[in-house]
Design a protein that fits this description.
about 450 residues, mainly alpha
């Protein structure tokens, strides 16, 4: 099939998906599956392989996020139901003052995002976002949007995350310099994102009923009994329940870098540092400190934890369907066709790296896939560059993978569902924010390229 036809099919698929979700109000899970099926057939994927491709897309995403989302939702429910989220939010508000709370949480998210994958860190911080939103009586978007933006920025640009590490290997850039220069660029980019998120938050966006229930604004009957909130846990305990899994995950990441392969200690820390294991440890601690020590019955504790699953199931299913759409676009050859078109235009190396990666990100959804594919396409074009130039080409590729997060990106669905946004409002906020961050990172990178 010709490149032009493949690109037309991809564009038509995205437009149909937006029409179904925004105008026809079709449930996103159904719309994503239906459009994925149509695009697969139109792009020439053999009928006998279509369901295999769709299943692989669903399994590829859910294999990494289902356990994390489920455990994270249970941990968040335990913290929220016990009154712990409010305790923590009130403590931070008293210490920092309301005018500096968003900035403080955004800085914390920036640091968290360096060792922890974007989706894991965001899910872990979700109860904190809800807690602050309830105390301040504002939309969780006010806190969640800038936090998610800076976490995704460091996820795509800094080691030890897979995209930048793999791109560095393909392009031959030094990991140490990539970390140093990437961090120096990510700081001003994060500051820009903070102010852009504040500007976007000037408008009030309607929230989904699930998030309104989480905030206890739309479903009074879902409130925890008063007895559950008597003597709420301290802010220190709640902070520990959040920090412990993060610290465990960080220990696994650091051990993989510092310890020798095959070391028993390295293998043990790597196992404990797996996000699912770290969250299970945190949930076990929450079970004891928030439930057993505070007199909850075993059945009541089980009911509280189980109540988190319906909301988590919505996030899981939509996220998985986003993975299906992305997989179909990859297998149909759309991403490769788009990259080939852009690579023949003859752009200078830095803009070409950024635009190819950005186009791949928009066409198939995955930032990591976009970065890896672009790195492979440019691996023969970087010969003769010095080590700093190689790092800057790598960063241009990484920042291209940051922008245009939309309906074919599983991260888009995680952010919009947790923050209670409709698809249209997600495009107006999250897609705009990621694109501004992407372009800002590229401009800083290009400026450094011109200076050296």
């Amino acid at each position: 099939m010709s490149t032009t036809m493949l690109l037309f099919i991809a564009l038509a698929g995205v437009m149909l998906l937006l029409l179904l979700v925004i105008k026809a109000k079709v449930q996103p899970f159904i719309a994503l599956l239906a459009v994925s099926l149509l695009v697969a057939l139109a792009a020439g994927i053999p009928t006998g392989e279509v369901m295999g491709v769709m299943t692989a897309g669903m399994g590829g995403v859910l294999g990494s996020v289902t356990i994390i989302i489920g455990l994270g939702a249970m941990l968040g429910r335990m913290i929220e139901h016990s009154g712990g989220a409010e305790s923590l939010a009130q403590r931070f508000s008293q210490a920092l003052g309301p005018k500096r709370t968003v900035a403080a949480l955004t800085m914390a998210a920036f640091i968290l995002g360096i060792p922890v994958f974007f989706d894991v860190g965001f899910i872990i911080l979700a109860p904190i976002i809800y807690g602050f939103a309830k105390v301040a009586k504002v939309s969780p978007l006010k806190f969640g949007l800038p936090m998610a933006g800076v976490m995704l920025t460091v996820h795509v640009a800094l080691p030890p995350h897979p995209g930048p590490v793999a791109a560095a290997g393909l392009l031959g850039s030094d990991i140490g310099w990539l970390t140093i220069i990437g961090l120096a660029i990510c700081v001003p980019v994060g500051i820009i994102g903070y102010f852009v998120a504040g500007y976007l938050n000037r408008k009030a966006y309607p929230l989904s009923i699930e998030v309104l229930e989480q905030l206890q604004l739309a479903a009074p009957e879902s409130n925890a009994p008063i007895s559950d909130r008597l003597n709420p846990p301290s802010a220190g305990l709640i902070a520990a329940l959040i920090i412990i899994p993060i610290a465990i995950i960080m220990s696994g990441t650091v051990s993989a870098t510092l310890l020798e392969p095959g070391s028993g200690l390295r293998d043990t820390l790597s196992l404990l540092g797996a996000p699912a294991v770290a969250l299970m440890i945190a949930l076990a601690l929450a079970y004891y400190f928030l439930a057993v020590r505070r007199g909850w019955s075993l059945q009541h504790t089980s009911d509280v934890m189980g109540a988190a699953l319906p909301t988590a199931a919505v996030v899981i299913l939509v996220t998985g369907a986003g993975g299906v759409f992305g997989k179909v676009l990859v297998e149909s050859g759309v991403g490769k066709a788009l990259a080939e078109v852009l690579s023949t235009i003859g752009l200078p190396l830095i803009p070409a790296a950024f635009i190819i990666s950005l186009a791949l990100r928009a066409s198939q959804g995955s930032a990591t896939v976009a970065i890896l594919t672009t790195g492979g396409l440019l691996s023969e074009a970087v010969g003769g560059l010095n080590h700093l130039q190689l790092v800057l080409v790598t960063l241009a590729t990484c920042f291209g993978g940051l922008g245009l997060s939309h309906v074919n990106d599983s991260g888009f669905w995680i952010v919009t569902k947790y923050l209670g946004l409709s698809v249209a409002d997600g495009l107006k906020t999250w897609t705009v924010l990621t694109t501004v961050l992407s372009v800002s990172g590229f401009l800083f990178t290009w400026l450094l390229w011109l200076l050296i």
